[in-house]
Amino acid sequence: MNEKRTGRELLIRYIFLGAGLAIMAFGVAFSIKASLGTSPISSLPYVVSLFTPLTVGNLTILMHIFFILLQIFILGKDYQWIQLIQLPVAIVFGYLTDLAVWATSGITCTAYWQQWIVCLAGILLVGIGVSFEVTANVVVLAGEGVVLAVCRRFKLPFANMKIAFDVTLVVLSVILSLIFLHSLQGVREGTVAAALCVGLVARFFNSFFKKINIQKVFSALSGH
């Protein structure tokens, strides 16, 4: 984190991050409504929510808490305790997800093409939300934090570790779905589409934010 940032600029950046979390939460909700499979990071809490009394948002919070503890275990004394700010961010994201699921409860898809429209809308929203998170540049979600921790500890490339992390979550989701639901749920063609396209959407909006020099906008709004 840049120590030269004023409190006002940090507030603006956290508001921007909050907007990104809300957008991302609605992306998750749309992917759930499409019933074509959620994004890899959301697949595990969604599948577990189908055979437990906990909501997707509750399970998202618990998963992120586990990821935070995993970061502490992996990095040990090298863990930066400022990263515990991931916890309130995770809690906000979890409740926003439940709110988004409730807000989209009236959406129904009666045809396969309709499912794809809703699924693609979800992918677009998640990608935009990720871009907001990256552009805010204040804190990463705990899932990305785990990937970064492993990369730092074992000197591994981020891209490769991110793929391995996403694949692990999807495999766990498939296993739990087959064991407890006796069918494959939460992981379908939409999951593959999300894995391939969310990053592309985020990259596009990252480029857009760079073109309009959003970082200078943050500074200007903070009075710099």
Low-confidence stretches: none
Q: Percent range for helical residues?
A: over 70%
> Largest beta sheet, briefly?
none
How many domains make up the 3D coordinates? 1
Structural class computed from helices and strand pairing: mainly alpha
Which whole number gives the mean pLDDT? Answer: 92
Helix count equals 9
Number of strands: 0
Gross geometry: globular
What is the terminal-to-terminal distance?
17 Å
SSE string, helices as H and strands as E: HHHHHHHHH
Note down, in words, how this protein is organized.
The chain crosses the membrane at residues 12-32, 44-69, 81-103, 115-142, 163-184, 190-209. This is Putative membrane protein YczE. There is one protein chain. The protein is mainly alpha-helical and 224 residues long. It has one domain (7-217). 75% of the residues lie in helices and 0% in strands. Helix 1 packs antiparallel against helix 5 (112-136), helix 2 runs parallel beside helix 7 (158-181) and helix 6 (142-154) packs across helix 7 (158-181). The longest helix has 28 residues, at 7-34. The protein is globular and about 55 Å long. The two termini are 17 Å apart.
